[in-house]
Amino acid sequence: QITLKESGPTLVKPTQTLTLTCTFSGFSLSTSGVGVGWIRQPPRKALEWLALIYWNDDKRYSPSLKSRLTITKDTSKNQVVLTMTNMDPVDTATYYCAHRPATVTTLYYFDYWGQGTLVTVSS
Amino acid sequence: QSVLTQPPSVSGAPGQRVTISCTGSSSNIGAGYDVHWYQQLPGTAPKLLIYGNSNRPSGVPDRFSGSKSGTSASLAITGLQAEDEADYYCQSYDSSLYVFGTGTKVTVL
Which of B1, B45, B102 sits opposite A96 (nearest CB)? Predict the structure, then answer.
């Protein structure tokens, strides 16, 4: 049974750096093909993909946020960490982490999601 | 920032059939990448509904079906039920990056 859970601050100030941790169970991030991604959703708005890290440490970032994002993994702890620098009120959103299954290489999707964590950016 | 376009809303009476379109381009859906669909009930995390254009994960009712043609894809819900009232998102792949649709709110009249 795959589960993921996001953790981190609920409130950050503008210009601060946000650090979110995704702790997962039921799979290993050392299994070929597996990935863990981050997706966010501002209140009453659409989903926006942010970043993803693969089992082989390959990392992908949204072009519009690439300069502000860093994604890392700790396979021994079953954790993936996302940092986002220079936070702004427009970054207020629910942040989700999700599992990309070890499937055929042409299928890129998320089959399990965490419950999400709401991050508010305000002074 | 979404590169996949969906209608903002669709509605239908219980029992009816509704469809949601997802329009992309030659760099994503048109490049041969598969389309996946997620259902987001109010106040909850998205849930995978369709993967690989037309495949349903275990537990998803067969009232939900997906298709893809050219640079577009569609999600159909037949026999609409009150519990289907939710937001629906398509998702694909573009230049080694994941992309989501603009989202569609389905209202059951």
Answer: B45
DSSP state of A1: -
pLDDT digits (tens), chain A, 123 positions: 999 999 999 999 999 999 999 999 999 999 999 999 999 999 999 999 999 999 999 999 999 999 999 999 999 999 999 999 999 999 999 999 999 998 877 789 999 999 999 999 999
Size of interface A-B (CB pairs under 8 A): 66
* Closest chain B residue by Cα to residue A4: B45
Contact A80, A24 (CB under 8 A): yes
| Min distance A63 CA to chain B CA atoms (Å) | 9
- CA of B6: which chain A residue's CA is closest? A46
Q: What is the 3-state secondary structure (H, E, C) of B10-69?
A: EEECCCCCEEEEEECCCCCHHHCCCCEEEEECCCCCCEEEEECCCECCCCCCCCEEEEEE
In the numeric block, which tokens belong to residue B80?
């609409």
